[in-house]
């Protein structure tokens, strides 16, 4: 009755561990990711949550949400597969 995790099933433990792992992934993306990538990841997560809500729980999924979802997916692909060469930053060096 007084032990740690009393009353938790194995599924509850697994879901809890997955939530903790997700939190660590978010922390790593905040630390190492750039601002555009963070924004795309956040909007992608919102779209995925909305889609899963519709499929699993019967939530609403309006045409506006579908259009927004397509735009987010296109933006993620555009950013991910961009072939534009990166410009090298100039460094101020005393040696000429």
Which terms would index this structure?
mainly alpha; 3 helices
Helix/strand-derived class? mainly alpha
Shape: flat
Mean pLDDT: 80
Largest sheet: none
> Strand tally, please?
0
Describe the fold and architecture.
By secondary structure, the chain is an all-alpha fold. Helix content is 67%, strand content 0%. The protein contains three helices and no strands. It has helices spanning 10-32, 35-57, 63-80. Helix 2 packs antiparallel against helix 3 (63-80). It is flat.
Topology (SSEs and partners):
Layout (H helix, E strand, L loop, with lengths): L9 H23 L2 H23 L5 H18 L16
In short:
This protein is mostly helical and 96 residues long. Helices cover 67% and strands 0% of the residues. It has 3 helices and no strands.
């Amino acid at each position: 009755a007084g032990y740690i995790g009393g009353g938790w099933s194995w599924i509850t433990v697994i879901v809890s561990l997955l939530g903790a792992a997700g939190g660590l992934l978010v922390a790593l993306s905040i630390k190492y990711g750039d601002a555009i990538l963070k924004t795309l990841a956040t909007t992608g997560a919102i779209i995925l949550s909305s889609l899963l809500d519709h499929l699993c729980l019967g939530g609403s999924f309006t045409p506006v949400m579908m259009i927004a979802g397509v735009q987010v997916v296109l933006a993620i692909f555009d950013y991910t597969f961009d072939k534009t060469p990166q410009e090298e930053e100039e460094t101020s060096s005393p040696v000429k």
